[in-house]
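Project standup — Tuesday

K.O.: blocked on the structure for the chain from last sprint. Re-posting the sequence here as requested.
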Amino acid sequence: MVAAPKESQRTRCEVWTRVMGYHRPVTFYNKGKKSEFCSRTFFQECSESNESFSEQYTA
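H.V.: unblocked you, prediction finished:
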């Protein structure tokens, strides 16, 4: 079994998100944008609904 690396040896994970049409790392945000990012609600689209919509409105 391999021992876990020390905190100083770990690679920091950087989170990127899309804001105003382009992607930026969250670490570059100002305090207001960081607060807004933390309060966001994430969702997943249902692919079946998208396919149904496409079939209905494209012909």
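K.O.: great, moving the ticket to review. The mean pLDDT is 82. The beta strands are 16-19, 22-25.
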